[in-house]
Amino acid sequence: MTAKFHHSSHKRDGFTLIELLVVIAIIAIIAILAGLLLPALSKAKAKAQGIYCMNNGKQMMLAITVYASNHSELYPPNPDDGNTVPGHSWCAGMGGRRRSRGIQPRRAA
C-alpha cells in the first residue's frame, strides 16, 4: 500500500474562522483590561494633582511665615495690580497690622 499525497496548488486567500475568532478574543481581552485600568489611572492622576496643590499651599504658607518672622510679624505687602484704593488687595482688611480696628484677638479670661 502506498499512500498518495495530494498537494493542492491553490493558494489560501484569507484567514480561517478560528484565526479570526482568536484575534477578536484577544482584542476583547485587551479592551476589558483597558476598561479596568483606566479608572484606576484616572484616580491616581486626581490624587497626584491634589497632593501637588496641597504642597503648593504649604510652600506659600511657609514663605509667608518666614517673611513675617523676618519683618516684625507683618504679612507681605500685597499691592494686587498697583491699585492704592484701601481694601482692594488679595488680602483685604487689616491683617498684619497691630492694633487694627478690625478683628481683635480674644483675651484669655
Amino- and carboxy-terminal Cα gap: 118 Å
What percent of residues adopt helix (DSSP H or I)? Answer: 40-55%
**Shape label:** rod-shaped
Q: Order of SSEs, N→C? A: H
Question: What is the total tally of β strands?
Answer: 0
Characterization of the model:
- With 109 residues, this protein is mostly helical.
- The chain contains one helix and no strands.
- The protein has one helix spanning 17-70.
- The model is unreliable at 96-100 (pLDDT under 50).
Task: Describe this protein with a few key phrases.
single chain, 109 residues, mainly alpha, 1 helix, 50% helix
Map the helices and strands.
Blueprint: H1 17-70
What is the gist of this entry?
By secondary structure, the chain is mainly alpha-helical. It has one helix and no strands.
